[in-house]
Amino acid sequence: MIAPYIIGIDIGGTKCAVTLARHSEIVGRWEFPTAEESSPEGVLKRLAHLADAAVERTGVSRQDVIGVGASCGGPLDPDTGVIHSPPNLPGWDNVPAKDILEEALLLPVKLENDANATALAEWRLGAGRGCNSMAFLTVGTGIGAGLILDGKLYRGKRGLAGEIGHATILPDGPPCLCGKVGCLEALASGSALGRTATALFHGRTQGSASAREVTGREAVEAFHQGDPQAREIVLRSAAYLGIGIANLLHTLDLERVILGTIAIHAGEEYLEVVRGSVAAHCWPSIWEGVDILPCGLGDRAQDYAGISLWME
Amino acid sequence: MIAPYIIGIDIGGTKCAVTLARHSEIVGRWEFPTAEESSPEGVLKRLAHLADAAVERTGVSRQDVIGVGASCGGPLDPDTGVIHSPPNLPGWDNVPAKDILEEALLLPVKLENDANATALAEWRLGAGRGCNSMAFLTVGTGIGAGLILDGKLYRGKRGLAGEIGHATILPDGPPCLCGKVGCLEALASGSALGRTATALFHGRTQGSASAREVTGREAVEAFHQGDPQAREIVLRSAAYLGIGIANLLHTLDLERVILGTIAIHAGEEYLEVVRGSVAAHCWPSIWEGVDILPCGLGDRAQDYAGISLWME
Q1: Which entry of B1, B35, B190, B285 is 20 to 30 Å from A70 by CA?
Q2: B256 reaches A (C-beta below 8 A)
Q3: Which domain CATH number covers B19?
Q4: Contacting residues of A for B280, CB less than 8 Å apart
């Protein structure tokens, strides 16, 4: 009989969480603000302690736990289990997270970057169920994809596959934080929305001293409230996202594309503009029958990300 | 003991060929102009007849032949073995090529589109040997890719993976024959080169009646002879090709990209401009260690395409 329990760990820039699942059902969840610990080792040891306590509290024997799945922003190496300086985790330079967690928990640990782990979660439990080739796109601060190809996670040579946020969409486009210009991320990410909205906001309040930054989420909020300028920039970003997705479909002939983060909050009108742009930039034979859907697990996707690493 | 012989069939718009290989060594080759036969059935029966004669002439027993590998321009369905109206083969509408060849030859037949089959040939015998994830790009009349991902040919849901010629590179770019605008094929294919060169040529000979079409190959020829305008358009097309390849690398994190057709004839200076453009449009961590190479099998690639379908 297969051990029924899996421990999921989510290492984030803002918060960290441990989940305990029996088969695919989450039976407990514990979290803490990442900043409460002063070092990567401190964070990992607290996560291990929480996981230990979770197992004990639930009365589960250690033999009933298949393993621990940890999800974290990349870059990281899933083979060695080392985290290499993710932008959202300052100071996490070459941290052997897998080794630290295995030593503390005496359980096998798998480490995967969050776009890949969330793609697996959506594929096994969310909007990707039943398909063979799909992409999960996170459209938040950055844009990245996790790719399931022929029923398997595809990582590429160095685990960098799916970095479509830095594909060039507009060769003479706006500068990207990566140093290039016209990247998909510079046109359609939450940060790009925020930057464009900030520039507009400064235009509106010209001469006043209230020069503050607008976030991508606030721009989406203003779009929902019917602000015409917010509407224009949010829907323009949706059209650019459509070009990026159309290029992905011409490259990989996928069955489904699943969108997370902003795509969920922006709602159906945003998704319709994305779909229209994909249709306009795709061959009909490539676009026909492709579903573009919001993330099925919604806000729980990150909880399932680590757990899905141990699901068959 | 494994049967040592493989029959390769190449179905092209201009000519068709049969090759007989012992392991990976070609021991015979026979071809005829496609237009000599008036129907797809006529072409396939003549190919079968040539293959039969090849086996007899060489004194090979039918049990010594593993199978027949046929390569043809897409779209086609490798599972059913039916050819669906390729642009370079007018009248080949829903032709059950696999069934026709199997019935005539009494040998198992595999059918694959030529970009995929050439990718396999380059991977097993050419410039792709020893790598795990690569793309073969044909840059001729059209632009298409065959993808080897994690040591396996990746076809996508409907066998349309690798249609990167119709990824959008310049959203406000020139019209493509496919009906969209700014496709990679409209910017960097041989046909695009020919169209741009023709427009230039008409400009030079304004007022004269000698309005003739310039081909992509003639444009490359003029580039080799040092014509400054040909130089400009050929190297500009190389720069656009580099953007397409950079986007492919950000999506798939490949080890190697192998270029066929024009890329071979245009030579090292063209390749250097392609590489420079890829470097300018890639993250250093994605571009580092990637080789962009001309097709290793050169003009023999098409002969090996069908044969490679039966190689392990």
Answers
A1: B285
A2: no
A3: 3.30.420.40
A4: 180
